[in-house]
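Progress against Task 2.4 (sequence-to-structure conversion) is shown through the following example record, which the project officer requested during the mid-term review.
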Amino acid sequence: MDLKKQLAFYGEFHHSYWNKIVHIACVPLIQFTAFLMIAQTAHWFQINIISDNYYTAISVSSILMLLHAIYYCLLDLTMGIVASLIFLIEMVIANWFVFNEPSLISPIFGISQIFGWAAQLSAHKWIEGRAPALMDNFVQAFVLAPYFVLFEVVFMLGFRKNLEEEIEEVVAQNLKKNQ
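Structure tokens generated for the chain above:
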């Protein structure tokens, strides 16, 4: 597993600053609301962690989050841990909705998914001028998009600049090959 190769694949489809901003806003929204919808699956057990209204529970959603977290940790342990903490927060919030406001899940999911996908596809068409990564590798795009966005935020905050430069170099080489 090569982190640079994985991020470079996704990076080839995301050069524009504004396209990255759209993805930073929309990918987590799409991911969270998908996990939220899936969290409605049957829970195998519940652990009361904060009060009677907040739960962590093992569901299909939490298993998917765990698989993402393991994959991300294998690619980069530090960032994988950061992603895992974000997933844990998402899981607690999703389970709060499942146990306390289940009637809000479908509207939140529908509105967020429509907005998130429309914004991203529009950004690819009008800003990037290129089809999204999911057209080349559907599974990789879905698995990698949240991690790519996390790295983009880290890069924008001024961290991991050496890695950013290495990825940009690989992206530039790959784009030259494909022209």
